[in-house]
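Subject: Protein entry, chain in single-letter code together with its fold tokens

Area: Proteins and the way their chains fold up in space.

Attached in line: The record itself begins immediately under this heading.
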Amino acid sequence: MQNVEELIDKLHLEDLHNEKHPAIFDENETYDMLILRIPVITDELNNVSLGFILTKENSYFYNIKENKFEELNGVYMGPYTLVDKVLDKLLKSFLKYAETISDMEESLYSDMADSDFLNNWLAVKLEILRIERVLLRTATTMEEFIDYNKDVDGFPMNHYVDIHEHMERTMRSAMLQLSKLDYLYSFYNAKSNDKMNKMIYILTIISAIFLPLNLLVGFFGMNTTGLPFATGEIGTYYAVSIMMSMVIITSLFVQKWRKKIER
């Protein structure tokens, strides 16, 4: 193992030590360095960087937690086996986002969405965007690695193409879920706007009915002489009758106005 560490450039060692290093493929005369950053979904979303050193004789995985190189079985099959396991877990665990979005969709259609709908929507979308962004670079790096080794004898082309296809499949699934989230957001906004329009409509009707009444009450409440019905015994009756008539006339006008708008 000491020979492998002495073989690697110091800058490459720093890259392998970096837990958050993005995916990269770097070819050299004596060795090649491959770092693949892959999302890991457990209770929360994380990303792991898998660093490999490939020589003509063998391949080595850099264990960041234990800070050492681990010799793998074969030049190409060792990295493939390790990456394939991580990607299989990603494909299976990514299904939780589809289930979460389906639950959000069902609650929205049944008008049972809670007040945290937008917060949950944003959290899910951010996580899927992070997965898509990380996998986009990792898939590009894997494509470079495959293209570089495609003419090498003994290179398991089909195995690595399968890994690349798994990455592409996860990205396609991520894009599909993102499009569903965008649709849910549009539908949520449409429902919210509809509720808001109904509230505004009710307030408009109330304002249209009570505005004439306020004007009439203000008129009879003036401290001036010669007001109508001020001297009669049934002046209050006349005033109330006028106000009720105005309420009826205003209501009929609002209904006619509503039908005209709907048409």
DSSP finds seven helices and five strands in the chain.
